[in-house]
Give the backbone structure.
Amino acid sequence: MSTEVMKMDTALIYDEEMTKYKLLWPNPACEIETPERLMVINEALKKNGLSDRCVSVPVREATDEDFLLVHSKEYLEAVKTTANMNVEELMEFSKQYNDVYFHQNIYHCAKLSAGATLQLVDSVWTGKVRNGMALVRPPGHHSMRSAASGFCVFNNVAIAAQYAKQKHGAKRVLIVDWDVHHGQGVQYSFKDDPSVLYFSWHRFEHQKFWPNLKESDYDYVGEEGGTGFNLNIPWNKVGMTNSDYLSAFCHVLLPIAYEFSPDLVLVTAGFDAAIGDPEGKMCATPDIFAHLTHLLMNLAGGKLCLVLEGGYNLTSLQQSVCQTVHTLLGDPAPRPAYLEPPCHSALESIHCVRSAHKPYWSSLRHAAELPTSISTQCNKSEKVGEMLEKEGEEESVEELDWPEPPTRVSPPVRTSVVLPDDVPYPDGCKRFKLGAVDDGALKALMDKMEMNQICNGLALVRDVSMAMKCVVQHASSFPNRVLVVCVGDAEVQDSHSTKDGKTLTVHFSNKDSEELIGKYYLPVCLKKGWSDASWFTQAVLGLLLPVGYQYDPSLVVLARMPDCGLCDSVWQQLTAVLQGLAQGHTLVLVQEGEKACVGPTASTLLGQAAPSMGKFHAPPVKEVEALERLRHKLQADWKLLRNTAPETGGGDEPDEEFQSTVWFKNLIKNTLPSN
Ligand code: FKS
Ligand code: ZN
């Protein structure tokens, strides 16, 4: 048990010098990549008081040695010569590559951009800060060993991953590429390297979208020793929403990432996958980045480095970066807006990548095979030619409008504890002053959370079943929904299974209680002997989290029964991911005898990263099958549970219920030619 409070600082790395290059000749393909991109981010971070809350780490220039970790000597020397070129020569030089422009000062900026990334890795790896973000130009993820591409000169994040391995001895590095473009440069760098897991989702449209590569599809999984360590989710339609992104995280990235168990996480953090972006044409709102960030913060003991890539709608860009930095700083994530069912096309892609990776990851062992309809439909190679021809007729999406994310106010108290007098309260927590640990204290604590005066709470109670009953009853007087997560054996279904949906109970227990399933009472298996990392990926990431996100509670009650069977790290991971819901309002109830978990629970509630869960064992077949049956039954009610596209009976039309209803998706559909 560790109650020691770790360093919680967030690094921000930025230098104005990186705004000092721009496109010098007319070129429609490159005009969106401007110095203003960095300027508006910097202004927004200052305006929202975020810069001041971060530790400012200076940039440095990357050295030749750093560049040579990924790039060829010839290419490096060629780029160096651009510093002395005139405009005509720069234009000529740029022409050898795809969608890039050079400038006399870009080599200097590229040194700072890669150097800033390495400074971030150093600060996070050595524990000076716990996480951070580098705001850089030029971006990096398209750049290859001997070629610039897509505004990128050197591959900042690929260099950083090699550097972390060589300089710091990192054993496993996870790269999450949430930019809307495929970072083919990163993919190529690590294609046969099992120590770097690369995940990317990207606008693909059956290879019709830039960079139009066959190897951006879901069936490219890596090569030789690195087979299985490259994860591509191609988006074949524009207009993807928050639900599509969350589904990709819950059903693809997170289970595999937890199984991989990285010791460092790097994010190629482009924000062109957000609403309003002219390149991405997607519909996810800026607040989704709070959740994506939160969901990565408990991997690698919290060692998380974000490096700016794309993002071309200046409003959406700055809002998204602010949401991200708030979360890095530990501010509770806002409740996600507009969660509708994931769309048919996204589910198809998710299904395809899960089945392509089934042989390599035991957390996907039960994933469904590709139905023949999809494998034929995705038989891309014949279609590509005809698709590419259509590229000329560019779609026009009218100016989209979306509400500005609400300001994020953290409650004055983060964690309040209600403990018997003889139990020392953990560092950093506030004792909830109300005398005895009784129902009155619990209710008062809940009221304070509801009023946003306290973020979360922990109570050590005499009888956890009774306490839960009381809490749930009190919650029924609230206007909003409460998610009750009960871990361990207890009689809960009679006491508070509500039909009106004001309470949703997810009950993890040893009992086979399939006959009790209702829309708002979900009995989920937690068998003796299966309560480890693989249980977490199946039961928590694949089931609880999607349901929780879709239910969108205003309070989460997490009750731990005596002998619940979870070890500290799994319990902490569970506690940590639940804090993405209900603006972090979690009330944890623990039985008196379980004192030992007070410290670890409190540290997680305070926002410390949960520890890694240790070795991943293949999940037991019988139990996973039971869980799969449950997920199947429930997915009619809880559509975020889907990880396959429903069969459409042969026709091309997605089934009725998957047509979205929310305004912006209709807007997109009506303004684009249907394909
Ligand atoms: C304009 C076509 C532009 C090139 C797109 C490059 C995207 C770059 C990026 C990065 F993160 F690297 F900046 N084609 N209609 O956003 O991926
Ligand atoms: Zn991009």
